Amino acid sequence: MPKIDKEQKFFDFSDYGRAPAILFSNLIKDTSLTPIHVTIGFGIIGLFSAYAIAIESYLIAGVGLILKSIVDAMDGELARIKGRPSYSGRYLDSIFDSILNFIFIMVISYKSSCPYWLAFISFLCIQLQGTLYNYYYVILRHRSVGGDTTSKIFEMKAPNAFPIENQSTVNVLFRIFQILYFPFDWIIYQFDKEAFKIRQYPNWFMSMISIYGLGFQLMLMAIMLSMGLINYIIPFFVAYGLLTFVFIIIRKTTIRE
């Protein structure tokens, strides 16, 4: 089950890990490994990358961030290949992403000249950027024929669990997911309430927005780390967040119902 149909496919700058993720997922599809195992795997890789930053092995940390992006794409691909989507997996994936983003930024702050208060603002900006991308992308997926609708445009209550998962687990993970993501969802919705009414987002717009995808964000971090620019990462993502409002203005002025 693809996320979107072929007619709506766009060049996603954040999705460079998709091709290797599909390859590796096909290699392990007949094993006992589950998408949840893969999710735990990218969590471990993320923690290793944070440790590499802490010991100033910045090149290794950069490689780890890219590898994390690839493995991060694998859990969803494996779920689709095996025909076993789950809300537990989706929420756990998002929870890990949020926690790891916070850890990355705080470790970078610890090893750089940036104060923790600015690091926290940078983390909020990163989360808001990712939310904007996901907001438009989830809308597009719901407009797609046969697209992946595991993610919802508005998530106000826990969904009914799939037969392969436990409802109690879904409920707990959903509550954690809400705490971590609802404030950012609310902010983006307040700035662009009419976005969900759009039937088709042009490919150029989705490609432009994809520079806010987590994969692209991590790639930027990896590049800056490997170039010895650790002191600039946190202020960069704060400034980078200003594009959020530019993108919303572009959507409102050029893409209408």
Uncertain stretches: none
Task: Give the distance, in angstroms, between the N- and C-terminal Cα atoms.
Answer: 27 Å
Q: On the 0-100 scale, what is the average pLDDT?
A: 92
CATH architecture: Up-down Bundle
Tally of helical runs: 10
Q: What is the string of SSEs from the N terminus onward?
A: HHHHHHHHHH
Secondary-structure-based class equals mainly alpha
Assembly state here? single chain
Q: Find the count of extended strands (DSSP E, 2+ residues).
A: 0
- Content of β-strand: under 5%
Kindly provide the name of the CATH class: Mainly Alpha
Overall number of structural domains: 1
Please give the radius of gyration in angstroms.
18 Å
Largest sheet: none
Can you tag this structure with a few keywords?
257 residues; Four Helix Bundle (Hemerythrin (Met), subunit A); mainly alpha; single chain; 10 helices
